[in-house]
Structures are given as C-alpha cells and as structure tokens.
Amino acid sequence: MHTIALVGCGRISFKHIEGFINNADELKLAAVCDPVIRRAQEKKQQYKKSFPDATIGVYADYREMLDTRKPDIVTIAAESGRHPEIAIGCLEAGCHVICEKPMALSTKDAAAMIAVAQKCNKKLAVCFQNRFNAPVQRLRTALDAGRFGRLLHGMVQIRWNRNEAYYAEAPWRGTWAMDGGTLMNQCTHGIDLLQWMMGEDAVRVQAQTRRFMRPIEAEDFGAAIVEFKSGAVGIIEGTADVFPSNLNETLSLFGEKGTAVIGGLAVNRIETWRFADAGSVGDTEEKVLDQNQKDPPTVYGFGYSALFKDFVDAIRQNREPLISGEKGQKALEIILAIYKSQKTGKPVDLPCDFSTLEMAGEFK
Ligand SMILES: NC(=O)c1ccc[n+]([C@@H]2O[C@H](COP(=O)([O-])OP(=O)(O)OC[C@H]3O[C@@H](n4cnc5c(N)ncnc54)[C@H](O)[C@@H]3O)[C@@H](O)[C@H]2O)c1
User: Exposure of 27 by Cβ count < 10 A (0-12 exposed, 13-18 middle, 19+ buried)?
Assistant: First the structure.
C-alpha cells in the first residue's frame, strides 16, 4: 500500500481522485493541497464518499504537506507552468511523481525533472492517459505485431472547442508563462499518440500556428508536418475554435499493409480497421467496429485509473512507467519545435532547445 497526495485541486483533479479510488487496494489518499483551500476540501469530500473513515490532511502549501505527511507518491495537477518546481520539490523530498501534461513548458525544465528523478532514484510519469484507451492499446498491439508493414504516414486531428468562458475561468490558460496554446494544452495528447505510434523519433517539424479568435496570448490553432527518422510523415491539425462544440479527436495510421482510424470524441472509437492479415487474425473490420463502446462522459476519457495502476506496478516491479519522464517529454519537444517553426518561419530540426517564453508577443 502506498500513501499518495494530490497537489492542485482544480478542474481536472476529480479524475485523479477517481484514479485513487479505483486503485484503492494499492493507493491510500493521505493529503490534498491547494492554496485555494476550499478546492482541497472538496477533493477530500469526493474521496470520503467512497472511504468515509479516511484521514486526509488538507494543506495550502505543498512543502508543508511534504514535511509533515511524507507521502510515497504525489500527483501534480497544478497549472502547467508550476509543474517543474513542484515536481522537483516532491522528488527531492523522496516521493515518486505523476505529473499532469504537459510536464513542463521548456525543454530545459523537462530535462531537469528527468535528471532529478534519476538522481533521487524515484519514478516520474506524465498523464497521457489516452494511451490507455482500449482502442489505442489495440492499435498499439497491431503495430507491435508488425501488421501495418512499413508505416507511411499518420495524422492526428484535434477539433475541439475551448470557448471564452473556459479561458475566463482560469486566467493562466492560454498564457505563454503558464500554459501555451491549444497545441500545448489540449492537442498534446494526440501529438503524444502520433509520435508514440510513429516511432518516437521525430527529426524535423514545419508548422503554422495562429491565434484566430480566442482572447489569449498563445495559439488557438496549429497545423504541422512532422518528419520521423524512418522517413514516415506525421500531420497534425489542432484547434480550439470548432463551432459550436467539441467535434472529434482522431488518430489515423497508414501502413503498406494496414489502415486504422481511431476517432470519436477523444480517440475512443475504432472507425476504420483494415489489415492484409485480417482473415488469419480474425479481426474483420465489421467485427471490430461492432465492439466499440460509447463515448466517455468527458474528453478526459477512461485512462486515468489504468495509468495510476501502471505507475504502482512500475514501482513494485522497479521498471519505468509506460509514460516515463523521457517518454512524456517527446510530445513537448515536438510542440516546442512547432512554436519555434512558427516564430522563425522555417523548418526546425530536433532535438531543439526552446521555451514557451520565447513566443512572448508572437500574436500581438
Ligand atoms: N490529462 C488531461 O486530460 C488534463 C485535462 C485538463 C487539465 N490537465 C492539466 O492539469 C493541470 C491543471 O489544469 P486544470 O484545468 O485543472 O487547472 P485549474 O486552474 O482548474 O486548477 C489548478 C489548481 O492548482 C492550484 N495550484 C496552484 N499553485 C499550486 C500549488 N503551489 N500547490 C497546489 N496547488 C496549486 C490552483 O489554485 C488551482 O486550484 C494543467 O497542467 C493542465 O494542462 C490535464
């Protein structure tokens, strides 16, 4: 059994509490922290609905929580720009860390987090929970089995709506210092999936981003072409401007012997499943489409509990979690390269050093 603490009790934190509850045989909530103490109290109450006898500390300051509670694991769901400082503080205090995406807003900060986790011999994972969606796992299994043959190209489309009320709710959203734009906040999941499927070795990015209509500093639209080491090409289309509400998040993979499209609200439905070996494997498109489940209630999907379970297993088995710091920084590197390409008007080779702060003033 591990004790766990939650740092940051805003919009997404209910999914963390759900993840703790669904892994209650291995995780016990010890503390909740938020400078807005009312939010921390609400998370304590959410947990207590399932475990009325639990003793949970409520803190405004996570450093005080670390000193007094000494949890085994901390999950971080504070604003993105605060992740590096909090994660490094928790790792140095001897905790394993699960950090919300994006893990950081600069390549240097991400590298520092990974280095501290290694130095302290603690696990670090990033919340790309969509990797655990059942259709995504199925796609990954098909890919690992070589069913696509040579991968030619892949595409991710994130066509969502984040309206003015969403940005007004939390002023840090859409700022270069604390968030970045829709590519860094919403589309980072799809970009992570694309690069994971395409070989995790992006070498060059060319992009156009825009702030079309949202009242923010950063982009609300982005289009990018990503070249992978194999020569395969990835295409990214991401927007927060879709009228009037979320439309779809879709990942498509095209290989010489297979085509698969995972769509739905948030990569949760198989839409196309065609493989040269479908007859011998026994997964005809008709059969696979029939097994689709309903859209999840929110775009956050069903993956958190599986991600937390993988993390606990990783500690027990002393292996890396599926989305370790090293794996989690790959989408960040691509997004920062997209930003640099927008800023310079040129293709950008990876790896590249960049920070969202270097984008200040881009869309004045
Ligand atoms: N994985 C996903 O699908 C997903 C979805 C939404 C948000 N997120 C990420 O989660 C993070 C939080 O997003 P949100 O929409 O919940 O934001 P939010 O503004 O609703 O909540 C953030 C909370 O963190 C608190 N906070 C700030 N500094 C803190 C500190 N030092 N210690 C403890 N708490 C602190 C704030 O008071 C606030 O309550 C962001 O990084 C975001 O990108 C991930």
Answer: buried
How many whole angstroms from its chain centre is CA 104? 11
Ligand 1: centre distance to CA 170 (Å) = 9
Distance 282 CA to ligand 1 centre (A): 44
CA angle, 142 then 249 then 80, to 5°: 105
Nearest-atom index, ligand 1, CA of 40: 39
Other Cβ atoms within 10 Å of 67 Cβ, number: 11
Average pLDDT of span 333-344: 98
Expressed in angstroms and rounded, the spacing between residue 110 Cα and the centre of ligand 1 is 18
Answering whether pTM is above 0.90, one says yes
Nearest-atom number in ligand 1 for the CA of 36 is 37
Compute the distance between CA of residue 81 and CA of residue 84 in angstroms, rounded to an integer.
Answer: 7
- Tell me the pLDDT tens digit for each residue of 188-246: 999 999 999 999 999 999 999 999 999 999 999 999 999 999 999 999 999 999 999 99
